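Researcher: Go.
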Amino acid sequence: MATEYSASFAFFEALWDAGVRYRFVNLGSDHPAMMEAMVKGQQEKRDKFPKFITCPSEMVTPAWLP
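Model: Structure:
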């Protein structure tokens, strides 16, 4: 089943174009469109789509910032 082009997918493509290669995420049940876009990108644009690192806590992400 083909998925449609979505705003979430466009958002991640724009991040890639801006130089973002990794995204630290803490997704929940209120983020289905972003999850679908992540899967679509990993399947269709593997080498030109941000990589996702799951952070089960919001406090992990700030620890990576300089």
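Model: The beta strands are 22-25, 51-54.
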